[in-house]
Amino acid sequence: MPDEAIAHLGEDLYNYWERYRLCFRTRTRDTSPYAYTYLRGQMTLEDARNYANIDRRLNGGDGQSLQQFMTDSPWRSQAVFEQIQADIRTQPLLLTGGVLILDESADEKAGDHSAGAARQYNGRLGKVDLCQVATCLVYAHPATGVWAMVDGELFLPQVWFTKAYADLRREVKLPKRKFATKPELGLKMIQRVKANGLPFERVACDDLYGRSSAFRAALDADNVRYAAEVPANTRVYLKPPVVGLPCRRSPKGRAPTRLKVLSQHRPHEVGHLAYGQRTLWQRVTVRQAERGALEADFAVQRVWTLTDTRQVREEWLVIRRDLDGRLTFVLLNEPVDTPQDVLIQASCQRYFTERTYQDAKSELGWDDFQARKYRAWEHQLALTAAALWFVASVKLTWRQQYARDPELVRQLEVEILPALSTANVRELLQAVLPVPQLTPKQAQQLVVQHLLNRARSTRSRLKAQREHNDSS
Question: Is the whole model's pTM more than 0.70, yes or no?
């Protein structure tokens, strides 16, 4: 890490924002300076990365203009994602070996008045809770250790499309949308980034998406390879089943119209295959990590599955058994002649989505989001994705320009040297872009303005209450 590289890190962030400026311009205004303020706040503040605090700490403002930029300004969040994808396409190291990871992330909510908030499954807590759920698409490049968010959608539960939520939809300014399941949202995003030319080899996802045979079939129809986790009760055939219309048993009555399995082959639950005597296991090193080599046992089997419409599909099944006994089941649509080591490595690439969400929330303030409006949620996600990609681009650039000393590996007696983390990049940015300290006079003005804003909000609420009481 040369001193010169660190000294220019603040300039790098500014130049990065310059490249994205057009994403934040509307037909009537250039709101891009607010985007730079928000990005800098995400990178340099330690906590409370909300509108008011970012504007107060960096500009000495009251947060009103920044809030308007995030909640009401009509700049397109998709433009930011499109620029991130375009940046990835310009990196020679990332043109091959990339993976898309489809996953979701939930945030707890105190009330149900935020866009998409409802009682639904929260994966972070492992239970049903009042929360918002984001369905996101992560790009990961295992060879370089780069990961970034390249698209995202807010999942809206079905209750949000009922008449009871009509007023709330207007309050959060929800655009006209139809209900879509998470696999449907995921498929739309995958098709979107593919149309934009983002290079990737396959899509990885957990069993929420993988259990949908329609989702897997749709990816296959689009010539997209996948490594989809499935639950233990997923049924597969070890020989190709024969499917057709059963013979008519009697000349009376209606002829059969539903396809059925006509052969005598019985399906097996993948969970049972893990304990079968004929299942052959091999121990494989999944990857070299800072805590040492990560190993697991794997079994690979060619299987056949049925779609909801009784279409027969041929897939690979990879069963992973961790050293603690935990089992994972992955279906892949790789060619029949794919080597087993390729299948095994392809089934183990969801690890990067956990790192992406951890960085977004712990380091960049994604979970500090407090606004209620739908557009604000989209804008927050887009700027968080932009911050993630800035960190990824710094790591990638430094990896190419500043080679690691192989002598350190020998001296420290380790397999690999630790990679630059998001926390490391933030610490360096905090040194070159320190958060300004308020003078007593500035602090006094901010407190007075804050109290005035609170008083005006109270007046507005009281006026609305009086008008409601008069009308009733």
Answer: yes
Q: Which residue has the higher pLDDT, 376 or 371?
A: 376
Are residues 385 and 412 part of one domain? yes
Per-residue pLDDT of 258-284, as tens digits, reads 778 777 888 999 999 999 878 899 999
Domain end among 304, 331, 349 = 349
Cβ atoms 240, 312 nearer than 8 A: yes
> What range does the domain containing 105 cover?
3-206+353-432
pLDDT digits (tens, 9 = 90+) for 303-351: 999 988 888 899 999 999 999 999 999 999 999 999 999 999 999 988 8
Q: Beta-carbon neighbour count of residue 297 at 10 Å?
A: 15
Structure tokens at 44: 């340099």
Within 10 A of 33 (CB to CB), how many other CB atoms are there?
15
Residue 471 has pLDDT above 80, yes or no: no
> Does residue 58 share a domain with residue 202?
yes
Neighbouring C-beta atoms of residue 387, cutoff 10 Å = 29
The continuous run of DSSP H or E covering 122 comes out as strand 118-122
User: Which residues lie across from 244 on neighbouring strands?
Assistant: 260
The stretch 25-43 carries a mean pLDDT of: 91
Q: Tell whether 219 is covered by a domain.
A: no
Angle at CA of residue 48, ends 381 and 438, nearest 5°: 125
Residues with Cβ within 8 Å of residue 36, at least 6 apart in sequence? 14, 17
Cα→Cα distances 99→146, 173, 183, 418, Å: 11, 34, 18, 22
**Nearest Cα residue to 113 out of 377, 382, 450, 467:** 377
